[in-house]
């Protein structure tokens, strides 16, 4: 998803995993995705660089849609849409 479009997305749930090291952000994403309905979006805030690859790979493997990443002040905002 284009960064400008992604910046306008309003997530249904925000998970703040800043300050946790791998695999913390991924585990938080896994827990968080179960708390939203199919079609809803979670945003994971993380300052662990490995989260970029981990969350994107996990979403694809499980069948959710990884929408993209926005870099913010010292952290990443990663967006995933629940698909099942």
Task: Tell me what you see in this structure.
This protein has about 80 residues and is of the alpha+beta class. It has a single domain (about 5-80), classed as TusA-like domain (Translation Initiation Factor IF3). Helix content is about 35%, strand content about 25%. The chain is built from 3 helices and 4 strands, in the order αβαβαββ. The protein has helices at about 5, 25-35, 50-60, and strands at about 15, 40-45, 65-70, 75-80. The chain has a 4-stranded mixed sheet. It is globular and about 30 Å long. It starts with a helix and ends with a strand.
- Classify the fold: give the CATH topology: Translation Initiation Factor IF3
Uncertain stretches of 5 or more adjacent residues: none
Number of domains: 1
Rg (CA only):
11 Å
**What distance lies between the first and last C-alpha atoms, to the nearest angstrom?**
20 Å
What is the CATH C level class, in words? Alpha Beta
Elements, N to C (H/E): HEHEHEE
Number of helices: 3
CATH superfamily: TusA-like domain
Tell me about the largest β-sheet: 4 strands, mixed
From the 3D coordinates, which CATH architecture would you assign? 2-Layer Sandwich
Reading side by side through the largest sheet, how are the strands ordered?
Answer: 1-2-4-3
Question: In brief, what are we looking at here?
Answer:
With 84 residues, the protein is an alpha+beta fold. The protein is 33% helix and 27% strand. The protein has three helices and four strands, in the order αβαβαββ.
């Amino acid at each position: 998803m284009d960064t400008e479009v992604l910046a306008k997305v309003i997530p249904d749930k925000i998970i703040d995993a800043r300050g946790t090291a791998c695999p913390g952000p991924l585990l938080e994403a896994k827990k968080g995705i179960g708390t939203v309905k199919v079609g809803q979006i979670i945003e994971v805030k993380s300052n662990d660089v490995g989260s970029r690859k981990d969350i994107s790979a996990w979403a694809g493997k499980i069948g959710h849609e990884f929408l993209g990443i926005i870099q913010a002040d010292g952290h990443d905002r990663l967006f995933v849409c629940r698909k099942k």
